[in-house]
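Lab channel / #folding
Pinned by the channel admin:
"Please post every new chain as: sequence first, then the structure tokens as a reply. Keep commentary short and put observations after the output so the thread stays searchable."

First post following the new format, from NK:
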Amino acid sequence: MTFRYFLSMLILSMLPVLTYAQKDTHNDESKVPNISLPDLFVNSKGQEINTIQEWEYKRRPEIVNLFENNVYGTMPKAIDALNFTIVNEDKMAMNGMATLKEIDIEVIYRTQSATMRLILFIPNERDEAAPVFLLINHRDPENIDPTRTIKMGFWPAEEIVRRGYAAATFHVKDVADDDKVTFTDDILSKLYPEELEKENGMRGLGAWAWGAMRAMDYFETCQDIDAKKAAVIGHSRGGKASLWTGASDPRWAITISNESGAGGAAISRRKFGETVQRINTVFPYWFTDNFNKYNNNEALLPIDQHMLIAAMAPRAVYVASASEDLWADPKGEYMSLQLGTRVHREIYKMKGDFPKAINSPGNPVHLPYAGHHIREGKHNLTPYDWNLFMDFADNYFRFNNE
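Reply from TO:
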């Protein structure tokens, strides 16, 4: 049997699975079912949630726990030691505009260790510690080239620094490969192998969020970074991880999701574009095993993604979409943001509301606590998106300093 024959048979054997996974997907708004969403303001005991104390001590922890058990998996908190080693430093990076630091973050637990590389550009011209944007990068490492020989719009580090922000990033391969076979090779096998045995154990996206938290651990030790003014951002699958980061870790001031779709910002019950069943079939290593129970059965989910948005409150959240990216369901993402930020308005009494209809491309909506825009074009993270994220952060941090 030749390798080519074997490969052909393997692909053919997968076709029924892939066809089944995509048979219920559609981009037709008329096919969206009537849906009933879980109530943000009623907990599992039937108690109404009306106050900040009730939200912070009853409902929010319950919501995060439901996402842990049913979608993203538990988040291991046990660490024996953290070591930060600057392996490269260039105080005249970007033609003198920034200081580059490449930091190895070593995590030790039960005699085992794992190391992730953090790339950080800090503006040289500043009067105080710099606010920071952290990108969770799942694309080719050339997108985050620390030498800046290659410059990609996906991470416009020069413009971020020029705007007065530190530009930080790490590649997900350091914590969990974006691969259904080798995703266990890093922290899951070295530090937390017990997670792989649990139906609600951490998987790939949870590991990426864990990596973002380790970056925050470093920011808190760095006198050049204002860790209280930190934003975490991800695109697509990285956007799913950024939302879980912000929900799990209240140290992030702003959480940004760019075109995150199913399992990210989009309402699962809409079954529009990518569905729970499709994403679990094609990417079985992203979410915890329990999420499979809701394949083509989204109505039984005890949560939906508007509740993930709500878990950020009172901190800021931003959701961005693209006009041609129907697979990520821009309407469902906007709906989630509208509903989730009710907590900001009704519990924390923050001013401003989103329009009922989704805003058109080129007309962003920036409220004091949340932002949204839809960009013309396809599935991507572009300098246009970044500039709007920074515009929002400018206003948010200025307002919260007053």
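NK: Confidence is low (pLDDT under 50) at residues 1-22.
TO: also worth noting, The longest strand covers residues 81-93.
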